[in-house]
Amino acid sequence: MGSEVVEVGAGELGFGQVVEVARRGAAVRLGDEAVTAITRARTRIDELAQSPTPAYGVSTGFGALATRHIDPALRARLQRSLVRSHAAGSGPEVEDEVIRAMMLLRLRTLATGHTGVRPATARLLAGLLSAGITPVVHEYGSLGCSGDLAPLSHVALALMGEGAVRVRGGEPVPAGEALKEAGLEPVELAAKEGLALINGTDGMLGMLILALDDLTRLLRTADLAAAMSVEALLGTDRVFAPELQALRPHPGQAASAANLMALLRDSPIMASHRDDTCTRVQDAYSLRCAPQVAGAARDTVAHAAAVAARELVAAIDNPVVLDDGRVESNGNFHGAPVGYVLDFLAIAAADVASMSERRTDRMLDVSRSHGLPAFLADDPGVDSGHMIAQYTQAAIVSELKRLAVPASVDSIPSSAMQEDHVSMGWSAARKLRRSVDGLTRVLAVEILTAARALDLRRPLTPAPATAAVVAAVRLETPGPGPDRYLAPEIESVTRMVEAGTLLTAAESVTGPLA
After folding, report:
1. Which pLDDT does position 56 carry in this prediction?
2. In which domain, by residue range, is 96 found?
3. Mean pLDDT of the chain
4. pLDDT of residue 64
5. Is residue 192 domain-shared with residue 225, that is, in the same domain?
6. CA 452: distance to chain centroid?
7. Cβ(215)–Cβ(345) under 8 Å?
8. Is 141 inside a domain boundary?
9. pLDDT in tens, 268-285
10. Do both 366 and 457 map to the same domain?
11. So what's the pLDDT on residue 55?
12. CATH code of the domain in which 503 resides
């Protein structure tokens, strides 16, 4: 469990705070300002609940059943029934970090004072997060409109003391049992609370923020991998010069090129072919255009981050309680803004991985590797070297291309055509998580291959920064030699990429990369 306590107020929540709670188990506290805002809105909901005038979500049914006015004696049952019926997910369990992010983001919306829940209900959600109680949520069930209904319903079910939960990653246990063990009391949902707990895009937004955290690291790692491959393939760094990048002033491209220059600085390998004996006019695109592709991906991440930042100050529910006391229906629960950028990021991840695989393939081909042995094998023909490691990359890249097909262009009507256009944002987020994992593995294979190629360039030595990365890789995997069981080495380097270990090694020489 993380040592930080994240306070959820009525204002913005930072990306880093979401990551702390989701990935490092930070505890959560509901701020005093938030309690004041929640109490004010609840007062208005209580007034509506006593009124004879029907109010959607308070005294009516839901979706296509909104035309039915619900008798006051049935309204507690209405909220229970809503949560129980909507907790209809199926398939594999969703990862704990995704569920915790979703819970935190729903709490943040409750804290705005625009949903009408009671303070006790919001405090219980914070209590689950702090106690490490994570409801079991399933892969399938959300259409991304009205928000992530089924996933959030499984969370709301746990607040009622029903359904299954995991406590700090343990085996599933009944929610009521876990709450009692943690000293928490289940909530009896009051008017509108069930709807307020489930009507948001928090699942897809949580996955977007986690992906942004991953991709920020992975795109710097892509620069690192490219630098190692350029060096191993006796390429040039002149094309990364800032005056050339300035001719096409995309910020991501400039940052990527600057990273490549820093990583290749003072390289004896690069210096060995700077004289007139080098007859190559220019490198292949996968080397020369590395900052253009990784830079475009960076700019895509920046755009997605801007969308996520706006979502982090949004109050997504239907209906909402406005500051003047009005309770109004709206369409802010539609997931299109988040779904689009989730799909866009999957496209960027696929393209960066595709370029990485092409660089790997060049290092293995004697006709293009400029003096390296075939497949970097110890005894080519007897040994196959990294031949099949590249197959693994190619298989992943092919999968990433399929995952790049947008989910957000699809829509399927539901709720008797009341919800006749949906975002599929949850599906976009789920496939992006697979894309991020695939990109991680593709970069790991390139780095493992480039490290072997750099070792094979001896007695020439790589740049201090890339040499530090090779040294870090060698702490986990042996250097060139006869064929051996390769899968564990790929997994070791994959874990190093995930943990940022290799970036840390490079940055110990270069300083922070952009």
Report:
1. 76
2. 5-200
3. 94
4. 63
5. no
6. 31
7. yes
8. yes
9. 999 998 876 665 668 999
10. yes
11. 77
12. 1.20.200.10
d(CA 268, CA 234): 11
Active-site residue, selected from the candidate residues 56, 140, 340, 485:
56
Q: Specify whether 124 is located in the same domain as 259.
A: no
478/361 same-domain check: yes
pLDDT (average), residues 194-199: 94
Residue 333 and residue 323: Cα distance in Å, rounded? Answer: 19
Q: Are residues 216 and 196 in the same domain?
A: no
Q: Do 231 and 376 fall into the same domain?
A: yes
Q: Both 195 and 212 in a single domain?
A: no
Which uninterrupted H or E stretch holds 491? helix 487-499
**Can you give the pLDDT at residue 72?**
78
**Contact assessment for residue 18 and residue 104, using Cβ atoms and an 8 Å cutoff:** yes
Start-to-end CA span in the chain (Å): 30
CA distance linking residue 502 with residue 447, whole number of Å = 9
State mean pLDDT over 71-81.
83
Q: Are 347 and 217 in contact (CB under 8 A)?
A: no
What's the domain count of the chain? 2
d(C-alpha 351, C-alpha 291), whole Å: 12
The mean per-residue pLDDT over the stretch 486-491 comes to 98
Indicate whether 172 and 216 sit together in one domain: no
Domain boundary among 200, 220, 253: 200
485 counts as catalytic = no
pLDDT at position 75 is 77
Which residues in 455-474 are b (16+ Cβ under 10 Å) and which e? bbbeebbbbbbbbbbbebbe
Contact 294, 485 (CB under 8 A): no
Q: What is the pLDDT of residue 53?
A: 77
Average pLDDT score over residue span 349-365: 98
Residues in Cβ contact with 340 at an 8 Å cutoff, skipping those fewer than 6 apart: 307, 408
